[in-house]
Each structure stands twice: as C-alpha cells, then as structure tokens.
Amino acid sequence: MDEKNRQIRSRELLEPNFMISMYAGGAFPMAEEDGTINWYLPDTRAVIPVNEFSIPRSLKKFMETTDFEFGYDKETMQVVKECANREKTWISDELIKAYQNLNDLGFLHSVEVYQKNKLVGGLYGVTFRGTFFGESMFSKKSQASKTAMVKLFERLKINGFTVVDVQFMTDHLAMFGAREISFREYEELLIEAYSKFPKF
C-alpha cells in the first residue's frame, strides 16, 4: 500500500462514528511503528467491574496525606499527549487527532492529578453507555497514576457506570481488582453495561 492510500485508510479507521462502533464491539486501536492504525480484539480481556474495584491499604494511607489535587475533563487532550510522550508509544499523532474528535463529541474523558497546580499524572479513556474503555495513564510523581485510578472509580460508581475495560492484565491493575475473562464473558458484561445511560 502506497503512502497516500495508507493515509486514506487510516483516516477511515479513525472516523468518530467508526471508532465508537469499534469500541462498542470491544475493539481498540493501536498505531504500529510505521504509523499504520490497527484495531485489536483479543480472545481474553482484562476488566474491572466498578463494584469490585479495590484500593490497596498503602494507597489509602497515601491518599489521606498527599497534597495531590484532582480534576475531571479539565485537560483531557493534554493528558493524552502526556501519555504519548514516551520513548515507545502506540499513541500516534493521527490517534491524538482522532481522540480530539471523540473529545469534541463527548466520548473521551480524563482524570487529572495536580501538585502545586502542575499536571503530574492522569488517565483517559472512551465511554460508551455504562462502559469506560481505559486507554492509557501517565505519572510524573510517585503514586500519581494510582490515585487517578481511585478517583476514576469514585466518579464511575457515583454516576452509575458498570465496568472498566482495561484491555490487558498487569500487576499494576491486578492490585485494583482487575481480572481476565473470556471474550464471551466480556460480551455479556458489555450487554449489561449498554443497558445503562450514565454521564461521566
């Protein structure tokens, strides 16, 4: 595929309506090293049901004394750019533009972590009905991304969300209650979540 056709194909894969339909079906995008955008649909999925989220004891103690302050949707695109600002990243410039479109339409959301009025951590994801599709997080200060997770789930629980799709299992996510399930189980969770119409 020549460069011109590759760019056309990438744009089609990142049209807002197409992206939302793909997310709703359980797929998620990633940019390859050559810039190609691919959508992935793994056989197993890592999720955290909102009501099963757990906070490690040491993190609870940290949050009682930290000077971190938190925001929601204050600097969503800056959070996306900070998540992309690393040596190896799947978040290409094309994807950043695509996320801007989703942000404009109200499907992209973020949690910001501040210290002395500076953005030191955060996370972002895509929402569709009762599901939050977690995409990425960053941390410039110890514990910043973990505290963002806590604040995310506080918000989701209050507003009636059902499940967070975290895509792949990691030790970091396991401490919060993430578990791997089959794609069939995952689809059942999505069906339940799609009966809800919460606002972030």
Tally of contiguous helical segments: 8
Structural class: alpha+beta
Ends: how far apart? Answer: 40 Å
Rg over C-alpha atoms, rounded to the nearest angstrom: 17 Å
The CATH topology: Aminopeptidase
Give the second-level CATH assignment, the architecture: 3-Layer(aba) Sandwich
Q: Based on Cα principal axes, name the global outline.
A: globular
**Text of the CATH class:** Alpha Beta
How do the helices and strands follow one another from N- to C-terminus?
Answer: HHEEEHEHHEEEHEHEH
Number of strands: 9
What proportion of the residues is helical, as a percent range? 40-55%
Annotation keywords:
200 residues, alpha+beta, seven-stranded mixed β-sheet, 9 strands, disordered N terminus
Written description of the protein model:
With 200 residues, this protein is of the alpha+beta class. The chain has a single domain (43-193), classed as Aminopeptidase. The protein contains eight helices and nine strands. A seven-stranded mixed sheet has the order 4-5-6-7-8-3-9, sandwiched between helices. Helix 4 runs antiparallel to helix 5 (93-104). The model is unreliable at 1-8 (pLDDT under 50).
Structure described in brief:
With 200 residues, this protein is of the alpha+beta class. The protein has eight helices and nine strands.
Topology readout:
Layout: H1 3-13, H2 16-24, E1 28-31, E2 37-40, E3 44-49, H3 57-65, E4 69-72, H4 76-84, H5 93-104, E5 108-115, E6 118-128, E7 131-139, H6 144-159, E8 163-167, H7 171-174, E9 179-182, H8 183-193
Parallel strand pairs: 7-8
Antiparallel strand pairs: 1-2, 3-8, 3-9, 4-5, 5-6, 6-7
Helix pairs in contact: 4-5
